[in-house]
């Protein structure tokens, strides 16, 4: 749900920003998304996904 929730919010935020022709989005993800954590593959993958989604937007 970490990544899906972020994606759903950004979907609507970006639409509004396009209409207004300005705006900023700031998403947060723990360092785990970059360095990884043992036994936490799904969590780390979702955090890395948030980082990539934000950079892509």
UniProtKB/TrEMBL annotation:
Matches recorded under Pfam families: adh_short
Family matches, as PANTHER family: DEHYDROGENASES, SHORT CHAIN, ESTRADIOL 17-BETA-DEHYDROGENASE 8-RELATED
InterPro entries: NAD(P)-bd_dom_sf, SDR_fam
Alphabetical list of Gene3D superfamilies matching this protein: NAD(P)-binding Rossmann-like Domain (3.40.50.720)
Claim: Oxidoreductase is one of the keywords in the record: yes
Record protein name field: SDR family NAD(P)-dependent oxidoreductase
Keyword entries, A-Z: Oxidoreductase
Family to which this protein belongs: Belongs to the short-chain dehydrogenases/reductases (SDR) family.
CDD domains: SDR_c
